[in-house]
Amino acid sequence: MTETSALLTPHLGFGLGLRKEHYDAVLADRPEVGWFEVITENYLVGGGKPLDYLDRIRAHYPMAMHGVSLSIGGTDPLDSGYLKALKALAARVEPIWISDHLCWTGVGAVNLHDLMPLPYTEEAVRHVAGRVRAVQEFLGRRILLENVSSYLSYHASQMSEWEFLVAVAEEADCLILLDINNIYVSAENHELDPRTYLAAVPVERVQQFHLAGHRDLGDYRIDTHDEPICDPVWDLYRDAVRRFGTVTTMIERDDHIPPLAELLTELGQAERIAAEETASGALDRSGNRAWA
Amino acid sequence: MGLSRDPAPLREVQQAIQSYVLRGDRDAEARVLSTSRVDARTRLDIYAKGYRLRLLEALEEDFRAVRALIGEVAFQRLAEGYIDAHPSAHFSLRYFGQHLPSYLSHGEYSASPWLFELASFEWLLGEAFDAPGATLVSPDALASVPPASWPDMGFTLHPSVRRIELAWNVTRIRQAVESEEPPPAPERSEVGIPWLVWRQGLKTYYRSLEPDEAASLDRVREGATFGNLCEDLCRWVAEDEVAARAAGFLRRWVTDGLVTAVRLA
Q1: Which contacts of B249-253 are long-range, i.e. CB under 8 A and separated by 24 or more positions?
Q2: Mean pLDDT throughout B186-195?
Q3: For chain B, which terminus, N or C, has the lower number of CB atoms within 10 Å?
């Protein structure tokens, strides 16, 4: 039995990012994963292989749509062409939810195809929250915003990243996709405490976790999604489960993509950690969810 | 925590950061904090380098044969020039390379005209790969049209159908690269050869066309009827062979999955 906050969809288990390298293996083996997350933009095409596989795999698994182009923090007008395509794809996929990133991707009609960090200002909170509300109204549903890995911070910032994330989520009444790896990477890059970050995020708005590997380049870390999850991120995930409960979780791998079996083993570790922490009664301490 | 001074407006910050990423404009440095280990410029460079790397990878993926033919170093130089000339304006990286063929037809690259043709051909393959799908006309549907109605019959072609004229052996170059063989040297034929690119099911195909088939296919795309095709074919074949020639094309197009609708006037 699970009780979740009124805002949230109940726990959907442990999932993976759907990548084309695994299309055939997924259809042939029907691996036991709770759900798949797809990168929205990969399927905003007319047809052919991408949409064909998407439909066939969707027939067997719940899916979440995860975008990289919303540019919710951008200062160009929202891209109505993108939003219409997003809504049309959502009608086809019927996703469990739609997420994107708390970032901007370009200005003056340029797309940098990157998740650029925002300055954490009052102005940016109002600006982003207004855009989130407009997107939610257009899509007819709440969206999830994900914290990004960042490699720079601004003199202009007036608050911490977590204060900014929480302020946007509350003002826009949207949900949070908490990327545990991104918290770790950004905390390392900005010399902050990742556990302070975790403790500041409201339990009732966290719908999903991301886990991933990154690169340690000595003086800084880059969110590459091309390696297994490292131990400090597993430790932080354990702390996150203690605080947030068994949140719907998935692993992202976008480069050096290993056989599906290898990712399933890694996903098993996430499941094991969640089971250990829930069995120990740690969830009750969160006071927000009770598990039996 | 709050600061006494007003922060710079969001758009101004974004413009400064983007100018650094696109052009290395150093005004952005004053807006970025350093850490004990990494200074502001190094932090900005992470984004600037990542930007170029991502776009280079997108071009490498879409123009595999161009890259194999000119080599990694020359391709990187080409990509650098293109990235500066055509910043991405689309929400998807999928379309970033769309102007590369025309970029290759200008400046220093125009001295290697096969590059323009090879890039154009590779881009069409990509377009056919994820073009919208459509229900195909079956050969039976064609057989059910009464002979008297054939002259007025019009056709809709599959959305993946693309046509291109190629004077260079770029399809062979692409084929070699896809088979992981060394590409042949660029070679020009005496006349341009018409090619057809399309997708049947999930597979992308291409084949060369005889000039009369190419002309017929192009006329069909403009809305011509079977009767129009027969009239045009008089330029190539004797009058008593025209209907058989046109019917032969049509049967092949239907079998190959090029035709999605038959219209009767």
Answers
A1: B249/B213, B249/B216, B249/B217, B250/B142, B250/B155, B250/B226, B251/B139, B251/B142, B253/B155, B253/B157, B253/B217
A2: 96
A3: N
